[in-house]
């Protein structure tokens, strides 16, 4: 709502704006400028409030608004409500707006090997001793993650109902890394054997009582469907996002809109540079930690249930 409060309008109360929010039209509120004054993006004011707004209404209004204010140079869209959207919602927006909706999943996939290796380094443990399962969404992201992870592991399992996808992936991983994948067609009680679960799909259900004590779950599904798994298992570590440093390369009007110093993966995907390659924080159980803070908090000397102390 701050984008509306300029000039004399800054003296108007929020209640007045909310009362007339349906009459307020979407608009570009500021541009993002790189060095030499090159405009590389814009911030749009579309919703004054989300109160009493259903998801279908949100998507409909978003599509109509974006199509009204986008330019021929607009290629992608960042929306703060990304984690409330399903794959079908995102496809609907992309098809109707002709833009790519950035969700940050590719950035997380790229950095998972670094994250896990760094956590193990801080704990003086070996990542290749851990049992890891990837719950597949049968896309190129699962393929990329599997090949990258296989380079560091002795044990890696893929769960997928698509046997054609699995067979192709097995051959590629063996050819590129020499690792022979283990495969599963469905999740069963053997899930309790895994130290680390990486979930890629929104079509999954985990029986929390079958998950290994102190296990790490990295959920990068659309909608983060496993983010509440630890509601009745406080020993589980649920990682739902990586945060990156905002190096300030994009300039804007801070009174209207500006990025935080640490930005989530879906924003990083749109503004990343070579200066901020590795994540600076991890979102775990709805709180943000540096990797060292995470290790100290969950795997410190007072914690004997660490996944890195269990085999």
Task: Summarize the model shown.
Helix content is about 30%, strand content about 20%. It has about 300 residues and is α/β, with parallel strands linked by helices.
Describe how the helices and strands are arranged.
Blueprint: H1 14-19, E1 27-33, E2 39-45, H2 55-69, E3 76-77, H3 87-97, E4 100-101, H4 105-123, E5 132-135, H5 140-150, E6 156-159, H6 163-177, E7 182-184, E8 196-199, E9 216-219, E10 237-245, E11 262-264, H7 265-271, E12 281-284, E13 287-289, H8 291-299
Parallel strand pairs: 3-4, 5-6, 5-8, 6-7, 8-9, 9-10
Antiparallel strand pairs: 1-2, 10-11, 10-12, 12-13
Cα distance, first to last residue?
Answer: 51 Å
Order of helices and strands: HEEHEHEHEHEHEEEEEHEEH
Count of spatially separate domains: 2
From the 3D structure, determine the CATH topology of the largest domain.
Rossmann fold
Task: Report the CATH C-level class of the largest domain.
Answer: Alpha Beta
Class per helix and strand makeup: alpha/beta
The name of the CATH superfamily of the largest domain reads NAD(P)-binding Rossmann-like Domain
Task: Specify Rg, calculated over alpha carbons.
Answer: 22 Å
Number of distinct helices: 8
So, CATH architecture of the largest domain?
3-Layer(aba) Sandwich
- Sequence stretches where pLDDT stays below 50 over 5 or more residues: 1-21, 304-311
Largest sheet: 9 strands, mixed
Strand content: 15-25%
Q: What does the overall shape look like?
A: globular
Mean pLDDT: 85
Relative helix content = 25-40%
Number of strands: 13
């Amino acid at each position: 709502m701050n984008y509306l409060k300029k000039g004399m309008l800054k003296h108007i109360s929020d209640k007045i704006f909310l009362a007339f929010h349906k009459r307020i039209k979407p608009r570009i509120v500021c541009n993002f400028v790189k060095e030499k004054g090159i405009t590389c993006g814009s911030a749009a004011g579309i919703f004054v409030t989300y109160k009493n707004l259903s998801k279908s209404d949100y998507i409909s209004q978003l599509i109509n608004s974006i199509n009204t204010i986008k330019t021929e140079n607009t290629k992608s869209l960042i929306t703060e409500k990304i984690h409330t959207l399903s794959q079908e919602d995102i496809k609907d927006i992309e098809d109707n707006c002709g833009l790519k909706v950035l969700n940050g999943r590719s950035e997380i996939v790229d950095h998972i090997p670094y994250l896990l290796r760094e956590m193990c380094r801080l704990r003086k443990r070996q990542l290749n001793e851990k049992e890891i399962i990837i719950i597949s969404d049968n896309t190129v992201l699962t393929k990329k993650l599997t090949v990258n992870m296989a380079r560091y592991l002795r044990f890696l399992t893929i769960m997928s109902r698509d046997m054609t996808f699995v067979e192709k992936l097995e051959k590629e991983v063996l050819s590129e890394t020499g690792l022979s994948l283990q495969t599963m067609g469905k999740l069963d009680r053997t899930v309790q054997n895994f130290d680390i679960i990486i979930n890629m799909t929104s079509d999954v259900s985990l029986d929390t009582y079958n998950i290994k004590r102190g296990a790490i779950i990295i959920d990068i599904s659309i909608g983060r469907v496993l983010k509440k798994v630890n509601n009745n298992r406080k020993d589980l570590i649920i990682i739902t996002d990586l945060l990156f440093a905002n190096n300030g390369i994009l300039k804007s009007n801070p009174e209207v809109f500006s990025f935080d110093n640490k930005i989530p993966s879906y924003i990083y995907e749109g503004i990343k540079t070579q200066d901020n390659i590795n994540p600076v924080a991890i979102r775990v159980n709805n709180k943000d930690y540096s990797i060292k803070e995470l290790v100290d908090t969950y795997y410190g000397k007072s914690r004997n249930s660490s996944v890195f102390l269990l085999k």
